[in-house]
């Protein structure tokens, strides 16, 4: 049972809401204006939730919410804002001040029951920073994880750090290849030198040579002064060639010559410049396939692939998903953001997601949750945006029986399954099912009728 305070000057609505809440097993307190509500909040004992109207006869509901949030003892109380007419401004302002939900009157009994269930799930225990042994909170780059797959990568980096040999990191986008390169640099004898990174896929082809090797004044239009390239900038340190697999063939030949001769020639100059750098390269591409297709030089591949290290996808290290998520939430809290902890349902949803964007996607998801979660404990509802994330590989995991169907038959079977799943997850609530499916309610009705799916709640 929860203790709920209703703040509303509409006697009929307030009494009706109070009756519904009491029927649902909760104790109810009532206030008709903001001043009385703030007095109750200051003096009364436990109050678990507040239903607060926007328009009150003395001070408006947003002012009450703002003062409530300034009360240390009430900072965590769930507040549900009520309004007869929702606008963009009042909704955004309410959520910015930490309202749990914003409802438009009238409010049905089922919607209230579902909302209170969510509030209860989000409350959870008093949040505390998770145990993150091996998850250093410092500024230095870290390859975070305890799984065997990542431990093996860490061991390979440790061994590679003892030499100046070229290292070639491979792995899907978001697996942390640049982080791994920085870790390697910091563990090596070159850690006192510069770490210079260049994304080979992000530089226009006609500027790549200048970016890598530098240029002299007058070499081309706009070259008003001599400029050192990345090789010179990294002298004595490490040069990280990210997405090297996207280099055009002409640039591959020039890079190969530089690596073989250990000298570069700035654009517009006839003078060669010697360099002392450790080369670390990375790509998300299947380089062996590109070599076979003759879109990547075989001799350059062998020159780069001295110490190959493959970074595992996040789905290949499932034991790291929840600890990493907790770490990213803790990092957000340590930088001044709200403190959140993962509930059991949230952990289950994290483990069940394919994570096509790997660690980068997980970090972005946790930053999003830290801002938008409606309570200190993150629930599966706070991670609903993961529901429609695309699989890591198109076609992966699709049953052979489905692939054997014609396209219309396959689409129908998939839509039927998605409809049943969405209705089950939303306890038959059509509005919630439509939201989960990412379609309008009318579109949901059309599909239910077309496939003859059984009747559900109209709420």
From TrEMBL:
Residues 3-120 form the Response regulatory domain. It holds the Pfam family HTH_8. The modification 4-aspartylphosphate is found at residue 53. This is Sigma-54 dependent transcriptional regulator. Residues 143-371 form the Sigma-54 factor interaction domain. Transmembrane segments: none annotated. InterPro entries: AAA+_ATPase, AAA_lid_NorR, CheY-like_superfamily, Homeodomain-like_sf, HTH_Fis, P-loop_NTPase, Sig_transdc_resp-reg_receiver, Sigma_54_int. It comes from the Bacteria.
């Amino acid at each position: 049972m929860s203790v709920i305070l209703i703040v509303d000057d509409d006697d009929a609505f307030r009494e009706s809401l109070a009756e519904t809440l009491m029927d649902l097993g909760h104790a109810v307190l009532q206030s008709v204006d903001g001043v009385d509500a703030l007095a109750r909040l200051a003096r009364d004992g436990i109050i678990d939730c507040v239903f607060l109207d926007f328009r009150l006869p003395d001070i408006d509901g947003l002012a009450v919410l703002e003062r409530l949030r300034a009360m240390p003892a009430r900072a965590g109380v769930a507040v549900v804002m009520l309004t007869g007419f929702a606008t963009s401004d009042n909704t955004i302002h309410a959520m910015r001040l930490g309202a749990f939900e914003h409802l438009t009157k009238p409010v049905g009994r089922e919607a209230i029951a579902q909302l209170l269930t969510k509030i209860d799930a989000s409350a959870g225990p008093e949040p505390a920073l998770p145990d993150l042994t091996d998850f250093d909170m410092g500024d230095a780059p870290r390859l975070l994880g305890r799984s065997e797959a990542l431990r093996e990568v860490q061991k390979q980096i440790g061994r590679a750090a003892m030499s100046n040999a070229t290292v070639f990191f491979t792995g899907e986008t978001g697996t942390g290849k640049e982080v791994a390169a920085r870790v390697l640099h910091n563990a090596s004898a070159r850690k006192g030198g510069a770490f210079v990174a260049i994304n080979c896929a992000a530089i226009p082809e006609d500027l790549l040579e200048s970016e890598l090797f530098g240029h002299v004044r007058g070499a081309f239009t706009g070259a008003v002064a001599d400029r050192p390239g990345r090789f010179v900038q990294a002298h004595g340190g490490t040069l990280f060639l990210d997405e090297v697999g996207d280099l055009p063939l002409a640039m591959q030949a020039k890079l190969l010559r530089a690596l073989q001769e250990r000298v570069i020639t700035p654009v517009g100059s006839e003078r060669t410049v010697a360099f002392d750098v450790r080369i670390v390269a990375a790509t998300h591409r299947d380089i062996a396939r590109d070599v076979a297709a003759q879109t990547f030089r075989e001799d350059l591949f062998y020159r780069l692939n001295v110490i190959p290290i493959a970074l595992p996808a996040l789905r290949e290290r499932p034991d790291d998903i929840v600890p990493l998520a907790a770490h990213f939430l803790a990092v957000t809290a340590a930088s001044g953001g709200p403190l959140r902890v993962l509930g059991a349902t949230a952990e289950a949803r994290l483990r069940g997601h394919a994570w096509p964007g790997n660690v980068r996607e997980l970090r972005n998801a946790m930053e999003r949750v830290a801002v938008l979660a409606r309570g200190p404990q993150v629930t599966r509802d706070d991670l609903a945006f993961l529901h429609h994330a695309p699989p890591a590989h198109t076609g992966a995991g699709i049953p052979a029986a489905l692939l054997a169907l014609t396209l219309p038959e396959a689409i129908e079977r998939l839509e039927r399954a998605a409809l049943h799943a969405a209705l089950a997850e939303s306890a038959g609530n059509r509005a919630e099912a439509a939201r989960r499916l990412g379609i309008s309610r009318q579109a949901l009705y059309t599909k239910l009728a077309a496939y003859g799916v059984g009747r559900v709640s109209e709420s």
